[in-house]
Amino acid sequence: MRHKSLAPLYEQEFRFYIIARFFYIMGLRMVGTVVAYQLFQLTKSSFSIGIMGLSEFIPVFTLALYAGHVIDRTDKRTMLTRGIFSYSICVVALIILTLPSLQDSLNTKTLEFSFYAVIFSTGIIRAFAGPTSSAIIAQLVPRNILHLAASISSTTWLTASIVGHASAGFFIAWFGVHVTFYIILFYILLAAFITSRISKKPASQTNQNVKAWESVKEGLRFVYHNKIMLSAITLDLFAVLFGGVTALIPEFADHILNVGPIGFGWLNAAIDIGAAIVLVAVTLRPLRKNQGKILLYAVAGFGLCIIVFGLSKIYWISFAALLVAGMLDGLSVAVRGTILQLTTPDEMRGRVSSVNSMFVNSSNELGQFESGFGARLIGAVPTVIFGGCMTLLVVIISWFQAPGIRKFEY
């Protein structure tokens, strides 16, 4: 008997997309985890991980709007395949950088800035590949099950993040950083091959004669005038910016909680584990009402959990705080992802996805920089506590200043 909430999986091309997305995101998350670990081992400073986040944020943010224009004018399957394959080239560069002979011959600063250069390149790729992977969903399933496809896609993303984060820690412990990058390369190439099995998805003809700047302005105007979408994006932007602790997990694992690479890997995966649990539940039993209030409550709870993590010196409490934070973040992702898919016209999906990427997805990297800079300025623990408090403040402001999101239902 077919489960209604899993209807998108009966579409063959959507299955190809989900499998490819799983391996690509798993590889992408492993890259972030392994490079962060390696940089911290090289520099013994969380600030270097903050710089890594900034290196990826700059190209994602600056290219996002132009990328949206290009995506809406281009075959999305071809663009996604090329983006994933290009990412594999960056992984090859990381394999070269971690060769023992090269590590011995280069000084720490040269290695550090080489890692930043590779991560900057991955940011360029992400500016195009990230929004494309969101925009293509509407071309893979009928519109009446699009909201279900969006939920499955989000669940896949987070499940892949869990496996990527956790397995990266295990692989570092078992095989070392260098061999781990070979495993990542296999995942990325496999994702590119599976994506190539999807048929080409021609772009809408209405976008072909529009000039780049006019196209970009049209996308921005649409998001600005869609108050519900704008409120959801803004709320998530500041929550991730202030509440993100990814950059500081290596320091907490090493200096405060005193755990090795395996413990670090599980801490790194905790938020994603919690989010995936909730997203699976929401996929099987979709939210029926009060989605706007649920979004606000979830982000507030997320901020509280971040404060608990900052105060904890006991590993299982820290892990539990991040796990619950992830569960609440999963609710936020489910609501925001559904808003994005249901309220965006097909001919504008690339631009709207790029605006979302510009202000939400790239805020992860900017949040990394903010955390790394804050840790250097006032210390890791005060930075995390400050971030959690700011997240709560953003929710309070949104509750009173954006009543539309509080009353929103779908």
How far apart lie the N and C ends?
27 Å
Q: Total number of β-strand segments?
A: 0
CATH topology: Growth Hormone, Chain: A
Rg over CA atoms:
20 Å
The gross shape turns out to be globular
CATH class: Mainly Alpha
Number of helical segments with 4 or more residues: 16
Order of helices and strands: HHHHHHHHHHHHHHHH
**CATH homology superfamily:** MFS general substrate transporter like domains
How would you sum up the major sheet?
Answer: none
Instruction: Briefly note the structural class of the backbone.
Output: mainly alpha
DSSP strand (E) fraction?
Answer: under 5%
CATH architecture: Up-down Bundle
The figure for the number of domains is 1
Could you list the spans in which at least 5 consecutive residues all have pLDDT below 50? Answer: none
* Overall mean pLDDT: 82
| Residues in helix, % | over 70%
Write the layout of secondary structure elements.
Blueprint: H1 12-43, H2 46-72, H3 76-97, H4 100-105, H5 108-135, H6 146-175, H7 177-195, H8 212-225, H9 227-243, H10 249-256, H11 261-284, H12 291-311, H13 315-342, H14 349-378, H15 380-401, H16 403-407
Helix pairs in contact: 1-2, 1-5, 1-6, 1-7, 2-5, 2-8, 2-14, 3-5, 3-7, 5-14, 6-7, 6-11, 6-13, 9-12, 9-13, 9-14, 9-15, 10-11, 11-13, 12-13, 12-15, 14-15
Question: Could you describe the 3D structure shown?
Answer:
Helix content is 81%, strand content 0%. The chain is mainly alpha-helical. It has one domain (9-196, 212-407): Up-down Bundle (Growth Hormone, Chain: A). Helix 2 (46-72) crosses helix 8 and helix 9 (227-243) runs parallel beside helix 14 (349-378). It is globular and about 55 Å long. The model has no long low-confidence stretch (mean pLDDT 82).
